[in-house]
Design goal:
329 residues; Rossmann fold; Arc Repressor Mutant, subunit A; seven-stranded mixed beta sheet; two-stranded antiparallel ribbon; 14 helices; 11 strands; 13% strand
Length: 329
């Protein structure tokens, strides 16, 4: 490792201030901890951008960059925060930055996208045929726009060929901590997590995801099936029953459903049921068995296993984590 590792935090046009400042502040704080314990500071941190002054959060904030992106010949790690609002607008506003991202990576720089900064990273083409993470609410949009990239549903951190990406919102902290540990040491990462009161061990954003059903497709008959599932999820539902709604065979139905929704019919039914269960836990005092029966399950183990698979938590853990906050609002 060189005496000092240069960390360049890109400040995108229409950037999100809550994602721009955390990596900048965290690497600076890491240096402070390192020197406090008699070690050498290992990071040089800077803001870079297309312009000297860049506004964030629709003009609420203005950030002064240290260097223009066009003047950055080399860097060790370039961090790409998300843009605010419409992703298409964010991509268009930062289109001039994409060639610089590619050039820096070709010169050996690592790239790291935070949250929906993955859209800007994807524009480089460097992720084609690879995996990445992004905010759970934007996964369907990302898949539609970049079908050649395997987006990791629920993942907090993805690493591939010196390219890193994080899941949604506060998941960016997990990637920042990971990078601090990788490029300095575990002790410093732990100190940062304690200093900023962060959960260093979280490895999934599934517990925060809200399933709204994948309806950004044009197969109106499959949409009818989705309507049926969402109205009758608490009943016993079979694949054959769903196939008859659109008067087709099981294999053809399953293929069309998967193509339209990116889920098998059974996966879709499970997601609808678990989303309903989450709402029961958040808004009622029902116990686990009562909720299980309300959403169409009769097997306690099956309900627990599917709930944990989709949320990362057991039903009891989910209820204990979210019911108190929800009922006090």
């Amino acid at each position: 490792m060189p005496a000092a590792m240069r960390i360049s935090v890109f400040v995108p046009e229409y950037g999100v201030i809550e994602a721009i400042t955390p990596p900048f502040r965290s690497f600076h704080t890491a240096n402070e901890f390192l020197t406090a314990f008699g070690k050498k500071a290992v990071f040089e941190v800077e803001y870079v951008g297309l312009n000297k002054y860049v506004t964030a959060n629709n003009g609420e904030y203005t950030i002064k960059t240290d260097r223009l992106l066009k003047d950055v010949e080399t860097t060790d790690l370039l961090i790409i925060p998300p843009t605010f609002g419409d992703t298409g607008r964010g991509i268009a506003a930062n289109a001039d930055a994409i060639p610089y991202f590619k050039a820096l990576h070709q010169k050996g720089a690592s790239l790291a996208s935070l949250c929906i900064g993955a859209f800007l990273l994807a524009e480089t083409g460097l992720l084609n045929g690879k995996k990445c993470s992004t905010h759970w609410a934007y996964i369907n949009e990302f898949r539609e726009k970049y079908p050649e990239i395997a987006v990791e549903d629920g993942a907090i951190i993805t690493e591939y060929d010196n390219i890193y990406s994080s899941g949604g919102a506060s998941s960016l902290w997990n990637l920042v901590l990971y990078l601090i540990e990788k490029f300095s040491d575990k002790e410093t990462a732990v100190l940062i997590s304690k200093y900023f009161a962060l959960d260093i061990g979280r490895d999934s954003q599934a517990q925060f995801a809200i399933f709204r059903g994948q309806r950004n497709h044009t197969d109106t008959e499959i949409q009818q099936v989705q309507d049926f599932i969402e109205k009758n999820y608490e009943e016993k539902v079979t694949i054959e029953q769903l196939a008859t709604i659109i008067n087709t065979g099981r294999r053809t139905f399953e293929r069309r459903f998967k193509q339209a929704t990116n889920n098998s019919p059974i996966e879709y039914l499970q997601r609808v049921r678990i989303e309903a269960a989450k709402k029961h836990f958040e808004h009622s005092r029902k116990n686990v068995n009562e909720v299980m029966y309300d959403v169409g399950y009769t097997d306690t183990k099956a309900f627990r296993d599917i709930f944990k698979k989709l949320t990362g938590l057991t039903p009891i853990e989910y209820r204990n984590r979210f019911v108190k906050t929800t009922t006090e609002i």
